[in-house]
Every structure is written in C-alpha cells, then in structure tokens.
C-alpha cells in the first residue's frame, strides 16, 4: 500500500479526488485503489515543555536558566492523539510513503517530523501541491520527487522551532520571574519575532508622543500663461531660513513677496518633460495582499489570511495562499486565458476587466527563476460566483484576480513635466503629469487625476493673478496600522540603523513569514501588549514597559532578521545547523544576565506615567495589570 500523508484534511481530500478509482472513506483517511491518503491536522506534534526533560523545571526559577535540552523531545498535541494513532497504524501497512506537506519550510517540517517520530524507515517521496484543482493535483502526482532533496528545508524548519523554544522559554521565564519580584503578577512573554514587532510600535508611539510640531510656510501664485492657467510654488533659497528639507521657517519673507506678486510679469525659464512607462504591479504574495486588503477594504491581516484559506480550501478558487513569491511559473502562461476566463465569467466587474486584457502580452511576472517553493496567488480557473461568497471573500478574490489580469494590460505611460519660472527675480516651480496611455491603471483606481499643466513653451511670458502664503506645521509620523505594520515587517531593513546590516537584510525576508505575520499581530493584541484604536495599532502601557525593561537588542529587528538569513543558508545551501544553535545559546546566556527586577520595576513605573493606553477586556475591565494568582506559574506561553 502506498500511503500519502497530507498536511491537512482539505489537501488530503483533493489528492484522493485526483487519483484514478473510486474513493472509499474510512476513519481519518481515504482509500483509492492501492493508495491510502491520510492527513495531519496542522501540527500533530509540538516541542516538549521543560518539565518533560526534568520535573523540577515545572517550577519557574531563575537558577534553572538557561534550560538547554540535551536530546530534543516532541510530544503529541492534546487534540491530535487520535489522528496520530491513525497514521501510526497505516504506516505499519505501508510499503511506500509520500510526504504531501504544504510546499514551504513549515510544511516540510510538519509532515516529516510525524514520519520520523513514528519510526518509518522506508522510502519517502515528496508531493508538492500548490493548487487544489483536480488537474493541478493530477499534474503534481505525476512528478513526485525524492523527499531526501528537501532535507535541508526540514533542518532549517527544525532549527527554527528549536531556536524559538530556547529563546522564548528562557527569556519569558527570566522576565516573568523578575517581573514578579518587581510586583507584576503576570507572564511577560518574549519571542524572537513578536518582541521586535512590539518594539517597532513602541518606538513609533514614542516618536508621536515626543513630536513637537514646527511651523513652516509656503507661498503659491496663480499664473496666466498663453494657453491657460497654472499654480506655481516659490522655491526659496539662501539667505532665507530653511530646514533640512528646504521648507521656509520664517513667514516674513514669504508675506513680503506675496504683496509684490499680483500683476507681476515673469518668464518660463526652463521646461523639462520625461516620458515614463510603468508595468502593472505583480501578482500578490500573501503579505502584499494583506497590505492592500487592509487599505482598500479595512481587513485585518488575520482576516485576510482567514479569507484566503477559505478561498483556497473550501471554495478552491485560488492557489496556495501562504506564499512569499510574486511571480508565476512560465508553464501557467499558456493556460492563463482559459484560467482567467473561467474565474471571471460570473462577475460583472471581473468580466469588464477581462474584456480589456490582451493575452498575447507576456509580462515579467512569468519567471521560473523567481519562483521557489510557491508561486504568487492566482485564480485556479474554477468559475467564481462572487454573489454566493461573503463580501470579504469576494473583495479579496477580486484583488487576486485583478493583479493577474493586469499582467495582460499595457504599461501605464505618463509624461512628467517640470516648469521653472522667474518672477521678480525669484524662482517658482510647477509640476504636472500627463497620462499618455492609462494601461492597467483603471483596474486599480477610479479616482480623478489632477488636471495636467496647460501646454507650455520655454521662454514664454506669464503674469501673476494672485498669490497667498499658507501657514503649515510639520506632522508627526502616523501610528502603525495592520497594513503599515505588515509592510514594515516585510521591509524591515528600513528600520535598521547599521548600513552593512541594512544591505544584508534587503536581500532576505523580513520579520516573520507570510504564514505567521497576521498571527503575530493578533497574539500581541490578545496578550495586551498592543491595542486597536480605530485602524491604528498602539502599544499599551504593559507593552511599552516590557520593551523598556528588555535589552535594546531584544526589541529590535536585527537579531531575528539575521536569524532568517542563517536559516535560509541552512535551507538553501545545506549549512550545518549546529553553529547556528551554538551561537544562539551563547547569545542567550548573555541576555539572561540582564533580567533585573529593579529595571522591570522602573519600566513599569515609567509606563504608568506615560499616555500609553491600557487595554480593556470585556465589560470595560482593564487587562494586563497585576492580578492575584496562587501557586507557581506553570503556563507555557506561546512564542513566535
């Protein structure tokens, strides 16, 4: 018997439906001819808690740290024992096993750790499915690979899980026990991703809180020219007082000039134009989709992920959603017209977009060299009756289909124009843009474009009709939202000060993964470290105090982003994981010495004096503050 082990039931059923023969369902599996398809339920196994290595570690004490397992142990998740027993029984009857985890690092770990935990020693093949449509699954079944090829991917995922355990267990226990000594009766959870994300928000909130607005002044003038009117802006230079962005810091020079301008004559001294062509945005990765869904439809990152999972598993309308790639396989290009016509035929908006597509166009999105374990999100071609979907599902599906359809539209062609005028011996400037070909742009916005500049000729004269000084103020940075925080996690190099580290991080993934970013935000909210205020994400007093009490490096992105770089080397270049874990342990031992009750007490007291909000639970009760607890804390906090 050939045994196929899928990552989840929906994938298992899709595989069984694609096999030749009549499926016969049994407990936890489907039998089709000589093949049995079973499945995991997500992770069936988890890292064992500290007390599985030594019962004394059930008690949280500083003198137990660091906790360093000699031989790592896994244990079944409480609700997974039944399915684990099904797989154990089927393995005893199998002659061959097919690993059908999702095509990513975590999917490789999830199924392979079960196979190894249950002691299978026979051959293992690898099935890579990224599209649950029957033809796509049948194609994947026809090109099984040797699972040994994916051993580096497994080692990287295993190293990540162990490193997360070491980092989270040890630092969480150290800060929680020290926090109790400081008078805080609650868990202070520390994680290799969640804490730097919290740090981003805490620092942004501090910038907003400490921001002091500065006035600046702008002067505009409306000009009459030969073929119309336009507005120009004064470009002050020395000796006027300017800030580092060239903004005028004193009103008097602008006001004095404004009084002299009406009726003054001038001349267009320089006219520059540049034609530009911009290709359509690429198809979506999950994080890019989460950013747009938040901006356009107000969906949280987790809501978008949940919608994508339903579109993928329940409705089978899109390909595998937890992808970090924005490119499509070249073989998909030939079938793109059929796929998109099938996907778009039942929706008026999509049919309208489909009508403008030119399927002879081939954009840079089709590129095998850019496709790794996954490709970009795309429709499967199954007809989508969006009237039967939930509104959020229809909205997200349209976004996904639109970005693929846009690959068959012409580039956006524009002409940027800059006109420099000399009036009363002062420099004025106007900028405008003329759309030469809207290309793909109408699929993305219905907003009216600003009117272009009138037709201009270099050297022509002008006359000032009116002028005015506007009093403005510098503005603080915007608070993070789901969209901007996900984008910050994707582009974490922007938040790193060290130029060398910044250059390195631009070449690698940011904080977290496509699959975990939404969950990290929700975890921080659930634990009372972040709160939502309308669309904004703000740090609570507890969240601010935690970051203040930790060594600065723990709340910054450099360490965890460089972790991902090292894990990528293990996955892609088959590097030895041992040096990575050894370096982590050495680093961890230094960090543990910084757990100090006095520092935590001071941080908690300092946060109480700030204007940071306190999260409220049901009924308006405040959460995150001290609460009574009897006995010794044994709860294992989730980490990420």
TrEMBL record:
NCBIfam families in the cross-refs: PRK07726.1, topB
GO molecular function: DNA binding; DNA topoisomerase type I (single strand cut, ATP-independent) activity; metal ion binding
Top EC class of this enzyme: isomerase
Keyword Metal-binding: yes
Region ranges (Disordered): 604-640
Segments forming domain Toprim: 1-133
Reaction equation(s) it catalyzes: ATP-independent breakage of single-stranded DNA, followed by passage and rejoining
GO cellular component: cytoplasmic replication fork
Listed Low complexity bias regions: 604-616
E.C. code: 5.6.2.1
Residues covered by the Topo IA-type catalytic domain: 150-592
Name of protein: DNA topoisomerase
Keywords linked to the UniProt accession: DNA-binding, Isomerase, Magnesium, Metal-binding, Topoisomerase
Family: Belongs to the type IA topoisomerase family.
SUPFAM superfamilies from the UniProt entry: Prokaryotic type I DNA topoisomerase
Gene Ontology biological process terms in this record: DNA recombination; DNA repair; DNA topological change
Organism domain of life: Bacteria
Extent of Basic residues compositional bias: 618-640
InterPro entries, sorted: Topo_IA (IPR000380), Topo_IA_2 (IPR003601), Topo_IA_AS (IPR023406), Topo_IA_cen (IPR013497), Topo_IA_cen_sub1 (IPR013824), Topo_IA_cen_sub2 (IPR013825), Topo_IA_cen_sub3 (IPR013826), Topo_IA_core_domain (IPR023405)
